[in-house]
Amino acid sequence: MKQILLATKNKGKAKEFKEIFGQIGIEVLSLLDMEETIPEIEETGTTFEENAVIKAETIAERFQIPVLGDDSGLEVDALNGEPGVYSARYAGLEKNDQKNLEKVLEELKGVKTDNRTARFVCVLALARPGSQTITKRGTCEGCIGEEPIGEHGFGYDPIFYPEGSHRSLAQYSPEEKNQISHRRHAIDQMISWLKQNDAME
Q1: 12 is in an annotated binding site
Q2: Average pLDDT in the chain
Q3: In the CATH scheme, what architecture does the domain 3-196 have?
Q4: Considering only CA atoms, which of 112, 116, 108, 107 is closest in space to residue 144?
């Protein structure tokens, strides 16, 4: 398997995957690279695992090639795990990063620092025609700051502080983020599985 299609139209996400998988000789294509226009896949699952599998299997069936689907988001303990699977559309269906993080900050008003613990979660699903779909989960523990800060990253990065860090994830360079991110942890587990099962041949 020298090529995987990533079931996303998110440029930032596609770039992260291309950089990491490129280091082990696997080319990553995204839906942005496909000539055919793919309609938005409805994420009807109630867990990250379910949504990742829906995306991967839907696209794999359509193109008959190995597909990586991912579902990721932010879980805030003081908000009972919200926004969770609704992270991309927490403030509304139009998927606005700025409004989403503003809503999280609003919901956490008055919550003390010690109680602002949170984690980014990423679940990867690998669907291959004729084979069982594999899922791997990665997390990045941390807490939510008081205001957005930083120029890098996307999504909730400007308000998320990785455990033990005095910088928001948006203040990390892309290279630094790729070392510790929830996506990186999930990708490492998936790559390990691919190697153990000779799936990279």
Answers
A1: yes
A2: 91
A3: Alpha-Beta Complex (3.90)
A4: 116
5: helix, coil or strand? strand
Q: Is 71 designated active site?
A: yes
- Catalytic residue, chosen from 71, 97, 188, 198, is 71
What does the block give as tokens for 178?
A: 């790729």
pTM of the model: 0.87
Q: What are the pLDDT digits (tens) for 64-97? A: 999 999 999 999 999 999 999 999 899 987 788 9
- Residue 95 confidence (pLDDT): 81
Q: 8 labelled as ligand-binding?
A: yes
Instruction: Answer yes or no: is pLDDT of 156 > 80.
Output: yes
The structural domains of the chain, with segments of one domain joined by +, span: 3-196
Residue 199: pLDDT band with limits 50, 70, 90? low
8-17 LR contacts (CB < 8 Å, sep 24+): 8/70, 9/38, 10/154, 12/153, 12/154, 13/70, 13/183, 15/174, 16/174, 16/177, 16/178, 16/181, 16/183, 17/68, 17/183, 17/187
| Residue carrying the six token digits 């993080």 | 101
